């Protein structure tokens, strides 16, 4: 009974330090208790140790405790979720994905986990040039996020559709992404898609509405010359009339931007 009393006092001290956000002190207290925690199969303190190490940005240590808690709790949903997040932090994505497949998407944390895993899978598919798979995953991501992709995800969907030859769909995704967040890479997607579709005026109109890197890109003399000649290398194989397109771009660009 004395040992139980001492264990209770030390455990209470560890909890007190954790609640005071003194995670270093809590870590020391939990380290001293580690043999007793394991001997007693103390699920609560194992979970506390995992969370404390996570907050100390020690995911490898946190994972050890989380996996211990997983064993003691007979694979509870909460411990599976914690373990999957820690595996993601450690870039052990395949293991995290395997656990995520066993989880019902019933909480905000599990939904967020599903979104991150789908996004990671889409990125891997895109980088491996499996564009059909990447498109499927990004459309799944749309569903998971309630049709609200981030600008970065929407731009990736645009490039996926562009690589698959679905130019009209790609242009629409690029334009929506650019409206969310005007970035240079997305601006290139807008121009490449519009040029191939021979609707460069859509890119110019977007530049006129929003400005940003798209305006700078369309005002670039080499690009204007390429559009005028219909010669833009492997990425932009377009056929545009000689002066009409360049004149249209100049007419639609803001007056403050040199043409």
Describe, in plain words, how this protein is organized in 3D.
Helices cover 75% and strands 0% of the residues. It is built from 15 helices and no strands. The model is unreliable at 231-259 (pLDDT under 50).
Task: Please describe the topology of this protein.
Elements (H helix, E strand, L loop, with lengths): L1 H18 L3 H18 L2 H13 L3 H14 L4 H13 L3 H8 L7 H20 L3 H14 L6 H13 L3 H14 L3 H14 L2 H11 L2 H6 L2 H9 L14 H9 L7
Helix pairs in contact: 1-2, 2-3, 3-4, 4-5, 5-6, 6-7, 7-8, 8-9, 9-10, 9-11, 10-11, 11-12, 12-15, 14-15
Quick rundown:
This protein has 259 residues and is mostly helical.
Q: What's the helix count?
A: 15
What is the CA-CA span between the terminal residues? 86 Å
Shape field: elongated
Class by SSE composition: mainly alpha
H/E element order: HHHHHHHHHHHHHHH
pLDDT average, as an integer? 85
Q: Main β-sheet: number of strands, strand sense, barrel status?
A: none
The rounded Rg comes to 27 Å
- The helical percent reads over 70%
Per DSSP E runs of 2 or more residues, the count of β-strands stands at 0
Query: Low-confidence runs (pLDDT<50, min 5 residues)?
Result: 231-259
Taken as a percent bin, the fraction of beta residues is under 5%
Salient structural properties:
single chain, 259 residues, mainly alpha, 75% helix, 0% strand, disordered C terminus
């Amino acid at each position: 009974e004395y040992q139980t009393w001492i264990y209770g006092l030390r455990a209470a001290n560890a909890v007190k330090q954790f609640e005071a956000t003194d995670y270093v002190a809590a870590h020391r207290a939990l380290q001293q208790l580690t043999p007793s925690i394991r001997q007693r199969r103390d699920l609560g303190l194992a979970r506390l140790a995992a969370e404390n190490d996570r907050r100390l940005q020690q995911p490898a240590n946190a994972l050890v405790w989380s996996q211990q808690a997983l064993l003691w709790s007979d694979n509870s949903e909460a411990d599976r979720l914690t373990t999957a997040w820690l595996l993601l932090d450690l870039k052990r994505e395949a293991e995290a994905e395997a656990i995520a497949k066993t989880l019902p998407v019933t909480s905000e944390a599990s939904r967020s986990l599903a979104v991150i895993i789908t996004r990671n899978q889409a990125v891997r598919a895109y980088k491996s040039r499996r564009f059909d798979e990447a498109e499927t995953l990004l459309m799944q991501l749309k569903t998971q996020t309630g049709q609200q992709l981030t600008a970065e995800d929407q731009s990736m969907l645009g490039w996926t559709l562009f690589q698959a030859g679905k130019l009209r769909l790609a242009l629409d995704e690029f334009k929506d992404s650019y409206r969310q967040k005007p970035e240079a890479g997305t601006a290139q997607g807008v121009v490449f898609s519009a040029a191939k579709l021979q609707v460069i005026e859509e890119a110019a109109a977007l530049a006129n509405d929003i400005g940003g890197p798209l305006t700078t890109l369309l005002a670039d003399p080499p690009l204007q010359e390429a559009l005028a000649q219909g010669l833009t290398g492997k990425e932009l194989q377009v056929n545009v009339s000689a002066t009409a397109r360049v004149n249209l771009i100049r007419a639609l660009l803001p007056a403050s931007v040199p043409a």
